Task: inverse folding
């Protein structure tokens, strides 16, 4: 009997090199690649011989169900996600919907999420305790997002913000910065990374006060330091504390 | 003139396959591999022809300085870290110490940190906003760790705990669970992942109440759900919210 399996694969931020070896192995051996149109287009060139199934944004459930149906029919399916498969990715909805496909095994292949890829570009902003928060209120009540922003600021976490803005949510980053300033200094070292791992990749270091006025778009990932984060020669660096043992 | 460069490379949790393609490319082309003895031993077999420099734990500053000196002398150096290069990794101390080596360029290569690799094994525990907290008080005051635990619980973050225990810190995980229960239900779905990506890899799902009595060791990563996290057929799944659009 053939094993029925669906892989949920984090393909990293964009460049092939930022994919794990395991992710590439899975994509090589699968029959069908399923995903959001924009991410799948990054793969077509590398894997031209595959069957593809794509849906636009906001049709994730349809995409997941179709992927599970194809796996149930005996095809080896790879559902691809930008970044990691878990972090705001498709592993969660696939595992929920897989309840109705008891013969299909789900295997999650992790990847480098934007928080880590952006960090590497900027230096080491998330080198100590950190929180990741999405500003999208499409599936989360705004009150819950605001509460998390306040709690993360109160705990002096370094923070990475996903989905800081879109056409419909122009003022959200400004509001987030204002909330953070309840507990964080306006001088807190912050940064933005845009188009991570893709054409037009760019970064900028700025203060929390400046970030408040920054016009982010949907390709931007935002980093907010903790009280000890520094700008060291153009890098955003949150200390682990090793500085205290320099005497060694 | 030869370019002086040091790469800080996240090699993922352990298995070669969980490394990024880029990390492997860098290790292939570098002259010297520097790191903590245990992680470097994972690489010796794959790259037997390299020069190696290792130091035991707690000698990170010495290791960083030696790596920077070697880069300054013209060798292509890869400083390797388990998981990601930034998350509790060596990117931060290298960037701090690199101030004294102005000719040496630092390039950070991200990797799959234990929070993501463990998540993939467990299902999708970190599929919504999450916080990563280390329970090690070697370089962080315990009051700050406790405050962060409370703030993360109050914000109903899913939480990943690094360094939950060691010989000297046997009761720390219990204390962390007690603090979390100020805001989180004792029934909260939690999990532990041990030896992620290595021999003896194992996971277990349990409630926050049960986690309080769990004996973690230094090879354990701990996951604590948010209020909506479920145990779905043995997987720890935090919803993104897609369930609400099932009607599509």
Result:
């Amino acid at each position: 009997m053939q094993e029925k399996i669906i892989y949920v694969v984090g393909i990293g931020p964009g460049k092939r090199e930022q994919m794990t070896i395991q992710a590439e192995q899975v994509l090589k051996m699968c029959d069908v690649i399923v995903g959001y149109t924009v991410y799948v287009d990054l793969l077509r060139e590398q894997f031209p011989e595959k069957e593809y199934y794509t849906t636009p944004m906001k049709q994730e459930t349809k995409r997941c169900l179709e992927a599970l149906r194809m796996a149930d029919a005996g095809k080896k399916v790879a559902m691809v996600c930008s970044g990691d498969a878990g972090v705001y990715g498709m592993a969660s909805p696939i595992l929920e919907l897989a309840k109705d496909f008891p013969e299909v095994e789900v295997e999650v292949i992790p990847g480098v999420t934007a928080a880590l890829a952006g960090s590497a570009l900027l230096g080491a902003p998330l080198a100590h305790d950190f929180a990741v928060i999405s500003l999208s209120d499409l599936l989360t009540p705004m009150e819950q997002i605001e509460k998390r922003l306040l709690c993360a600021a109160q705990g002096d976490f370094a923070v990475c913000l996903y989905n800081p803005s879109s056409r419909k949510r122009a003022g959200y980053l400004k509001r987030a910065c204002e909330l953070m300033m309840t507990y964080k200094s306006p001088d807190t070292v912050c940064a933005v990374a845009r188009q991570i791992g893709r054409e037009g990749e760019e970064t900028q270091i700025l203060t929390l006060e400046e970030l408040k006025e920054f016009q982010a778009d949907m390709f931007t990932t935002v980093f907010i330091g903790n009280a000890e984060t520094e700008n060291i020669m153009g890098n955003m660096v949150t200390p682990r504390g090793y500085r205290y043992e320099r005497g060694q």
Notes: The first strand of chain A starts at residue 4 and ends at 10. Residues 242-248 of chain A have pLDDT under 50 and may be disordered. Chain A touches chain B through 83 residues (CB under 8 Å). The CA atoms of residues 154 and 183 of chain A lie 5 Å apart.
